[in-house]
Amino acid sequence: MNIIANKFLSSLNSWDRNEFQYGITDCCQFASHVVKEITGEDHAAKFQYGSEEEAQRIIREHNGLVGLISSLLGEPNKAEKDGDVCVLFIPSIGELLGVRYKDNVVCITEKGLKAVEYKYVISEWAICHQ
């Protein structure tokens, strides 16, 4: 197992497993936590929100989740490696943020931690490999 995969698995153990809450335990906070554990960088520190409405406002201000993440990480640069940050589109949910691990993307939804098939990825950033 490579170093990134080990750090990813370690970040799952240190993740706060409390009930889903915007600004604390949502998909963006989860991805930010994983990236910080792997790289030491806190890319999302400048975005503070405490409700779904506030989160949606920030996303709208950046023309969507892909625009928001691009404002933090630069243009998408698909590498298809463990630790990549991914925006997915799931028809029943909409857009959400997760982190690639093997052939899936691990995300937080209102129903908890989920491994989602990679086929739902619409943008990807190789933040852990730069």
Q: How is the topology of this model organized?
A:
Layout: H1 3-14, H2 27-39, H3 52-61, H4 65-73, E1 85-90, E2 94-101, E3 104-109, E4 112-117, E5 121-125
Antiparallel strand pairs: 1-2, 1-5, 2-3, 3-4
Helix pairs in contact: 1-2
Structure characterization notes:
The chain is of the alpha+beta class. It has a single domain, classed as endopeptidase domain like (from Nostoc punctiforme) (endopeptidase fold (from Nostoc punctiforme)). It has 4 helices and 5 strands, in the order H-H-H-H-E-E-E-E-E. A 5-stranded antiparallel beta sheet has the order 4-3-2-1-5, covered by helices on one side. A hairpin with a 3-residue loop joins strand 1 and strand 2. The longest helix has 13 residues. It is globular. It starts with a helix and ends in a 5-residue tail after the last strand. The relative contact order is 0.19.
Which blocks of ≥5 consecutive residues have pLDDT under 50? Answer: none
> In order across it, which strands form the biggest sheet?
4-3-2-1-5
Elements, N to C (H/E): HHHHEEEEE
CATH superfamily caption: endopeptidase domain like (from Nostoc punctiforme)
Q: What is the CATH level 1 assignment?
A: Alpha Beta
Number of helices: 4
- Shape annotation: globular
Structural class: alpha+beta
CATH topology, by name, is: endopeptidase fold (from Nostoc punctiforme)
The value of Rg in angstroms is 13 Å
Mind telling me which CATH architecture this is? Alpha-Beta Complex
Question: Any descriptors?
Answer:
endopeptidase fold (from Nostoc punctiforme); globular; alpha+beta; 34% helix; 4 helices; five-stranded antiparallel β-sheet; 130 residues
